[in-house]
Design a protein that fits this description.
Blueprint: H1 7-10, E1 15-20, H2 24-35, E2 40-43, H3 52-55, H4 67-70, H5 76-81, H6 91-104, E3 111-112, E4 117-123, E5 128-133, E6 138-146, E7 168-171, E8 186-190, H7 194-203, E9 209-214, E10 221-222, H8 230-249, H9 268-279, H10 285-288, H11 298-315, H12 319-324, E11 339-340, H13 343-346, E12 352-356, E13 362-365, E14 369-372, E15 375-378, E16 381-384, H14 393-396, E17 400-401, H15 408-411, E18 430-432, H16 443-464, E19 468-470, H17 473-486, E20 491-493, H18 497-500, H19 503-506, E21 516-519, E22 522-525, E23 530-532, E24 549-552, E25 557-563, E26 566-569, E27 593-595, E28 601-603, E29 614-616, E30 627-629, H20 634-640, E31 646-648, H21 670-680, E32 682-683, E33 687-689
Parallel strand pairs: 1-2, 1-6, 2-3, 4-17, 6-18, 7-16, 8-9, 8-16, 9-12, 10-11
Antiparallel strand pairs: 4-5, 5-6, 13-14, 14-15, 19-27, 20-23, 21-22, 24-25, 25-26, 27-28, 29-30, 31-33, 32-33
Helix pairs in contact: 2-16
């Protein structure tokens, strides 16, 4: 990997920052780091960019987020030149978009494809990482950002005989680049998750026969996709900044506005009318614009689940098949609901058959097909739609060694352990974006604040001369415990990804997306339970207080929002209105340690504990995190409590920008940042919109601390 550093430096480092993965988040991280002057590069295992949209190219693969809410909002050129063809774009179009983005941003020379990182070791003396590739090459860098994604490690159930099968076998997460010919073939699909729900109706009319092996049915809801008309294109082009602001202020980062009402505040007729309206609305409106207590009130959830069950019965001709397709172990939204297009109608075709693995477990995979307790069926093609080892799978496979030879696989044996979802104790200079303990929703909107946070933190470390950044073990313990506690507030199925990334829940369920256990002479799916703040062992987690933490990292806000899955880093950087707005910062530390040399590891200023009567002023590049007195001026309070991403329009010039040692105010964002603010226009609450660029609040060099 070529380097732009001086000859002396290039002998030591191949890059200042190496980003692992060229998906939507890795590309964004590379752009932001290079934007602030880092020599940053990407190592990508595939032969092209796109991440999820490079590997998942099975027939029917597409967004379940609205296309215009998924892309990069920081590039005006992309916003005005790219036109999505559908409300929910397919895989091929999304892959093209990400390639256009890479070229528009000038990032392709800094992306090294066909480079799979297989391991690495942190050098405590030098404060650097040495990463190993699959070809045995070593790459040295100071910081590593793992943007490995949540859908990057396909999961293969441990079923006997899989390697003996002589026909064609494909996993939806590792689909070949060539077209697969399904015409007149006898095909088996194992799994009925999101990938299978998209694939099955697309190939059903091509195959001779299609047999679906179902472990656990899901609550699938209509995607209601369609082409974007010319008039809609013009409206979208004029409203992109409003769309971005909407995503920043809505739950999970989608364009769907929240419903302020609770379920049983409405009459039966009103509820039925809303359910019908949502059922015909686009995408995740069924979940996100439903009554606000859908995911906290078991009775409310049960009512909407019954509504969906009736819809399934109405769409599937065979009553017995319809009942098998209705989930019994969880309610709607307790697992991420797949969005479908004519999925249920596929089972009305005479060539499509459903096998319930609870009734007839798989005995083994044979040379010619699949054997269950009911006998063997022969197939020309087997499609494994068994999902992914989500969130933590790719990270644990990296085989990274931290301080003292510790590994994530060993440290996370009982579940992920992180601080803010961004770092792990004992792994200095390693950052995770889009990993465990972070928001799950419209993924680019969830990782956007994380990317800004990491960029600002690394810029801060570079400015202050720190060679390493690592969280305190106590902070990791506290954060991980808090995520587990907060998860108990909502209704979550034990097989959901939210449960699997929570260590408290993980001890009650399998650590893999689809567990199988030996039952008599067959293999069955592991049993599941849906719980509200409890697990099958009977343990419970206390309800967390209603509060929201805010942290800022110079180049953008990284809100820590209390959402359905717990405390989320930057999941909703728009003010957390769903959690009651800005809560008081609790008595906890936003803690990590900065190392300035081999022997010295001093606490950073962002490691100051915040007592209950103090508030935390956001950290920023060139500034320091400082507690702010509880008694403060009205102007200071208005400035500090403005909606995230905004500052008061009347903010005096002397408060803007950075105050370097000379005391002169500078704007690191420059004219481009000012133009973005002007384009954004007034934000909520009478603020100027801010789509990027740092605003430093640190003290002047030499001035006394407060």
């Amino acid at each position: 990997m070529a380097s732009e550093q001086s000859p002396a430096q290039s002998d030591t480092l191949d890059a200042e920052v190496l980003v692992i993965g060229a998906g939507v988040t890795g590309i964004h991280q590379l752009h932001r780091l290079r934007e602030v002057g880092f020599d940053a590069r990407i190592a990508e295992a595939g032969s092209g960019v796109g991440g999820t949209w490079y590997w998942n190219r099975y027939p029917g693969a597409r967004f379940d987020s609205e296309s215009y809410s998924y892309g990069y909002f920081f590039s005006e050129e992309l916003l005005q030149t790219w036109r999505w063809s559908e409300h929910f774009a397919g895989q091929a179009e999304t892959e093209r978009y990400l390639n256009v983005a890479v070229d528009t941003l000038g990032l392709r020379p800094h992306i090294r494809t066909n480079t799979r990182i297989t391991g690495g070791r942190f050098d405590e003396g030098r404060g650097t990482w040495t990463l190993r590739t699959g070809e045995g090459e070593e790459l040295r860098c100071r910081f590593v950002v793992a943007a490995t994604g949540v859908l990057s490690v396909p999961y293969w159930p441990d079923l006997p005989g899989r390697e003996r099968y002589r026909g064609q076998a494909y996993h939806t997460g590792q689909w070949p680049h060539r077209a697969v010919d399904f015409r007149d073939q006898h095909v088996a699909v194992i799994g009925t998750g999101a990938s299978a729900v998209q694939l099955i109706p697309v190939i059903a009319d091509e195959v001779d026969s299609l047999t679906v092996y179902q472990r656990t049915p899901n609550w699938c809801a209509p995607l209601n996709n369609g082409p974007i008309t010319a008039a809609e294109q013009e409206e979208l082009a004029a409203a992109y900044h409003q769309i971005h602001e909407l995503c920043r202020n809505t739950f999970a980062g989608f364009v769907h506005r929240a419903n302020p009402l609770r379920t049983f505040e409405a009459t039966t007729a009103e509820r039925r009318a809303l359910y019908e309206q949502l059922y015909h609305a686009r995408g995740f409106a069924k979940l996100l614009s439903n009554y606000r207590d859908l995911m906290t009130n078991a009775a409310a959830n049960a009512e909407f689940s019954r509504f969906l069950a009736d819809k399934i019965r109405a769409r599937v001709d065979d009553p017995a098949v319809a009942e098998k397709l209705i989930p019994r172990d969880h309610g709607f939204g307790m697992r991420r609901p797949p969005m479908e297009t004519r999925y249920y109608e596929a089972y009305n075709r005479p060539n499509v058959h459903l096998v319930d693995l609870h009734d007839t477990p798989i005995v083994s995979i044979t040379e010619d097909g699949i054997e269950t307790t009911a006998g063997e069926r022969r197939f020309d093609i087997i499609v494994w739609a068994t999902g992914f080892d989500g969130f933590s799978g790719a990270l644990m496979r990296l085989d990274l060694e931290g301080v003292g030879g510790r590994t994530l696989r060993r440290d996370w044996s009982a579940g992920p352990r992180t601080y803010l979802g961004l770092q792990c104790a004992g792994f200095p200079n390693l950052f995770l974006v889009g990993g465990p303990h972070t928001a799950a929703g419209n993924f680019p909107r969830a990782t956007e604040p994380q990317v800004d946070f990491v960029t600002g933190l690394l810029a801060y470390a570079r400015l202050r001369g720190h060679r390493s950044v690592a969280p305190e073990p106590a902070a990791v313990d506290e954060w991980t415990r808090h995520v587990a506690e907060a998860a108990g507030k909502v209704l979550i199925a034990e097989t959901s990804w939210s449960a699997r990334t929570s260590p408290a829940r993980r001890r009650c369920t399998s650590p893999t997306p689809a567990a199988w256990w030996r039952c008599g002479n067959g293999w069955k799916p592991s049993p599941t339970t849906a719980t509200r703040g409890s697990c099958s062992t009977g343990s419970r987690w206390p309800r967390p207080p209603e509060r929201t933490i805010q942290a800022r990292a110079g180049l953008g806000w990284a809100g820590l929002e209390q959402c359905s899955g717990g405390w989320l880093v930057g999941g909703l950087p728009g003010g957390g209105r769903h959690a009651g707005g800005y809560g008081r910062v609790p008595s906890r530390s936003i803690r990590c340690r900065f190392g300035t040399g081999r022997e010295t590891r001093s606490p950073a200023t962002i490691g100051v504990a915040v007592p209950p009567d103090r508030r935390l002023r956001p950290p920023a590049v060139g500034g320091r995190t400082q507690p702010v007195d509880a008694v403060e001026s009205t102007s200071n309070r208005r400035r500090r409590m403005a909606p995230v991403g905004c500052r008061p329009a009347a903010d005096p010039p002397a408060r803007r920008g950075t105050r370097p040692p000379g005391g002169k105010v500078s704007d690191p964002g420059g004219g481009a940042d000012r133009e973005r603010r002007q384009r954004a226009g007034p934000g909520p609450g009478g603020c100027e919109g801010r789509l990027g660029g740092p605003r430093i609040t640190g003290r002047r060099a030499g001035s006394p601390r407060r």
